[in-house]
Write a structure and sequence with these properties.
Number of domains: 1
Structural class: mainly alpha
Strand content: under 5%
Distance between the termini: 23 Å
Number of helices: 4
Shape: elongated
Length: 65
């Protein structure tokens, strides 16, 4: 799952619940500005967002072709 897929998932949840960014963030236990930065400004997802969504960041390396 990439960042855009996480954004889409959160946006879908907010739509289904009929709530704002601020309300969703409060429900999940972090600041609305944090979620706004991720959804609207393209920030990286912070640990609070990842935890609330049940996700973890994974980095890996591949050989060049």
């Amino acid at each position: 799952m990439d960042e855009d897929m996480v954004r889409e998932s959160i946006s879908d949840k907010m739509s289904q619940l009929g709530i704002s960014i601020q309300e969703y963030a409060e429900m999940c236990g972090y600041k609305g500005t944090t979620l706004y930065g991720f959804l609207e400004e393209g920030d990286k997802p912070c640990l609070a967002i990842l935890d609330a969504e049940g996700l973890k960041a994974v980095t890996y390396y591949e050989f060049k072709d």
